[in-house]
Amino acid sequence: MQTFSQKVNPEIEKFLESDPVKMYIGGRWTAADDGDTFQVLDPGTGKPIARVASGKASDIDRAVKAARTAFLKTGWSSIPANDRAVILHRLADLMEGQQETLARLESLDVGKPLAQAEGFDIPDAIRTLRYYADLSVHTRRREPIAISGFEASTIRVPYGVCGFIFPWNFPLLLLGWNISPALAAGNTVVVKPAEDTPHSTLYFCKLAEKAGIPPGVINVVSGFGETAGAALASHPGIQRMSFTGSPEVGRLIAEACGKNLVPVKLELGGKGAAVVFDDVDVDAAAKALTAAITLNSGQVCCTATRWIIQDKIMPRFIEQAVQNLKDVETGIGYGGDPKTKMGPVVSEKQRKRVLDYLNRGEKEGAKTLLEGGEANVEDHEGGFYVKPALLTGSIENVCAREEIFGPVAYVIPFEDEQQAIEMVNYSHYGLANSVWSSDLNRANRVAESLVAGNSWINTHNIFKQGIPYAGCNLSGIGGGVLGPETLLDYLRPQSIVRPLSRA
Ligand code: NAI
Ligand code: MG
């Protein structure tokens, strides 16, 4: 048995004991066809957690076929929505019962503070599952169309097999956000979790099994992007595809889906801005934005990374922000340690990316207000820790333009409203921004002028089931997640028409 820096419960010990951890295809726990495995590391120590089956194209093919068979034969797609909802609520109940296990697995894989996984990631995944289970019961699947001379209606039916590829920043939360509407609508799914963070998704399958979800309805193939991921996105047997991750890979997914004419949903990155006017409580705004940029060690696609501050309050804002970031710096630590305010980033690769951006930003002339860089945590020397950083300078700087995905904020002063709007919209991304002002008319006006899927006012990073969350431009296509319409994205409309008979 392994020894963990993090306390793990007996449920996790049992789950990880099956070294290597197997994939879940067609209701069976299975090794990869070629027997290959890969090592998953604890980002807080750099040490191995477990070996996991490394799926390839033939495993994806098995999973897609299992999902197809389940779609046609298990009744999942044809039973009343209510019956499916009952089973999905049962799954949500089981997730609630194992909330601690799921949260610990998430903290172990991602490095995030356990309190965050327990207080947000896991409950939010459960809330989303319940939301779509309920919504699906009340979704009309047969709507008559009033048209002269014909009896016509639109029916809505599930598509079939839906593919999902997820990133490593919020593994279970994104699983919940994305597969819940697909399942509630009656589809079957094949999931490829990120190679850095497969455990909570695989453990979720144990609960799905217990809940009585028929074999083949949920399939998870662990493995790498270039092999398992690419094979899933280009498989001719899928009817829909969804990807969350970087724009570079998003393009590859869209290309593969384009070739097969498979509809695709892309949730890509962001370079979110916060516009702070001079009529705010400066200390409170600085505190909120500091919390945003250090949440999940900055690995949040919609977080506030560009702080656009009205010039009059700039000095005071910077002073406060630096003080707050330094305070977080004193709380950098292991995810499983209750004192930890900010954990490591997910991998050495990600740490290097963040540090490279700091170097490039400086080379392009950014001024450092708070020096970031590698952080060392006592007794956790091998962990992938980075310090928060604050930069300022031109809006053209690489650190002001590109997604860094680390605890690095970039502050820029503005003079008037119009200039602030232009600065925000200078980005090619379009996921989320916020406006901070005590003048709510102005805040609304500015919020509506920002080109992005989400504008928050006097807050940032708000996600609620029922409020659509989507990106535009480089941030994504295909309608997003969390909205009521998302359920309809997983139901194919079909018109049924016959001449009117008066008999
Ligand atoms: P990535 O986009 O490469 O990985 C996301 C998922 O895509 C993983 O499951 C991966 O296995 C899969 N994947 C990779 N290459 C693939 C391919 N050719 N075909 C199919 N699937 C493939 O993200 P990465 O490299 O881990 O992170 C790089 C940057 O991407 C981050 O620094 C961040 O800026 C951005 N990112 C954005 C996320 C978001 O939530 N929007 C999440 C993760 C990363
Ligand atoms: Mg990549």
Could you describe the 3D structure shown?
With 503 residues, the chain is an alpha/beta fold. The chain contains 16 helices and 22 strands. Strand 12, helix 10 (282-294) and strand 13 (304-310) form a beta-alpha-beta unit. It starts with 9 loop residues before the first helix and ends with a strand. Residues 225, 249 line the site of magnesium ion. Magnesium ion is lined by residues 225, 249.
Largest sheet: 7 strands, mixed
What are the low-pLDDT stretches, counting only 5+ consecutive residues below 50? none
The amount of helix comes to 25-40%
Shape: globular
Give the count of helical stretches: 16
Based on DSSP secondary structure assignment, what is the total number of beta strands?
A: 22
Task: Give me the side-by-side strand order of the main sheet.
Answer: 14-17-18-13-12-19-20
Distinctive features:
503 residues, alpha/beta, 7-stranded mixed β-sheet, 6-stranded mixed β-sheet, 16 helices, globular, binds 1,4-dihydronicotinamide adenine dinucleotide, binds magnesium ion
How does the SSE layout of this entry go?
Elements: H1 10-17, E1 23-25, E2 28-30, E3 37-42, E4 47-53, H2 57-73, H3 81-97, H4 99-110, H5 114-137, E5 142-145, E6 150-158, E7 161-165, H6 171-184, E8 188-192, H7 199-211, E9 218-220, H8 225-233, E10 240-244, H9 247-260, E11 264-267, E12 272-276, H10 282-294, E13 304-310, H11 314-329, H12 348-363, E14 367-370, E15 373-374, E16 386-387, E17 389-392, H13 398-401, E18 408-414, H14 417-425, E19 432-436, H15 440-449, E20 454-457, E21 476-477, H16 485-489, E22 491-499
Parallel strand pairs: 7-8, 7-10, 8-9, 10-11, 12-13, 12-19, 13-18, 17-18, 19-20
Antiparallel strand pairs: 1-2, 3-4, 5-6, 6-22, 11-21, 14-17, 15-16
Helix pairs in contact: 2-8, 3-5, 3-7, 4-5, 4-7, 5-6, 10-11
The chain binds 1,4-dihydronicotinamide adenine dinucleotide and magnesium ion (MG).
